[in-house]
Design brief:
alpha/beta; Rossmann fold; 7-stranded mixed beta sheet; 8 helices; 7 strands; 33% helix
């Protein structure tokens, strides 16, 4: 069993994800049957955290919206999932189209602060409820690369590591892709997240007493 294999329901990271998803489960129990938009979503997340049977019983339908179909999953149950390719910062839906808009570990990939603001605005525009999770910048083991304090290294060092090491699920990258990934991966601090969600309580997921990730959720 791999500690960091999200495809394995018994792995350490999958168990952490299920524990964290308890907050989301409470929201769904309040509002089902419901239509959920998962921005940057993958089917395996929902299958491992909730199970297809649980989702079917509650008449939950999840639209998996991503910039590519590469990660969302294959052979999906159409009664539970559908796939849409679009930009999470410019969602192709009218206001209040979904009961819940969900985002797990995505906002740290969308780019500059202007795009982050647009991302949050769109989440709250098209949903009645929202739920967003993002890894904490302060946690010593960077969540994507699984390299200690990776987020605090100079950009040149991060690019070099992307090129010469297998980091997390990333293979060794070309110089161009390494620079692109380095620019893309920007973890948020609690203060930065609070600036995007004023007057919303930020909840902290803790591991060994340290803040591992942040969650914000509520009524749009």
């Amino acid at each position: 069993m791999s500690l960091f294999d999200y495809a394995d329901p018994a792995s350490f990271v999958s168990r952490l994800r299920r524990r964290r998803s308890a907050h989301l489960r409470i929201i769904i129990e309040q509002i089902y049957p419901c239509r959920i938009l998962d921005v940057g979503g993958e089917a395996q997340y929902w299958i491992n955290a909730f199970g297809v049977g649980w989702l079917r019983e509650r008449l939950v339908h999840v639209t998996l919206l991503n910039h590519t179909t590469e990660y969302v999953g294959a052979d999906l149950d159409p009664s539970v999932f559908c796939v849409v390719v679009a930009d999470g910062c410019a969602l192709p839906y009218p206001a209040r189209s979904f009961d819940l808009v969900h985002s797990n570990s995505v906002i740290e990939h969308v780019g500059c602060r202007v795009r982050r603001i647009a991302f949050v605005r769109e989440l709250r525009r098209v949903g009645r409820w929202f739920y967003l999770q993002t890894p904490a910048r302060c946690f010593p083991l960077e969540a994507h690369t699984r390299f200690p304090l990776f987020q605090y290294l100079p950009s040149a060092a991060r690019v070099w590591l992307f090129q010469h090491c297998r980091l997390g699920t990333y293979p060794k990258l070309s110089a161009e892709r390494a620079r692109a990934f380095d620019q893309e991966l920007q973890l948020l601090t609690a203060r930065e997240l609070a600036g995007l969600f004023p007057a919303v309580t930020i909840r902290r997921e803790r591991l060994c007493g340290l803040t591992k990730s942040y969650m914000v959720y509520g009524v749009c």
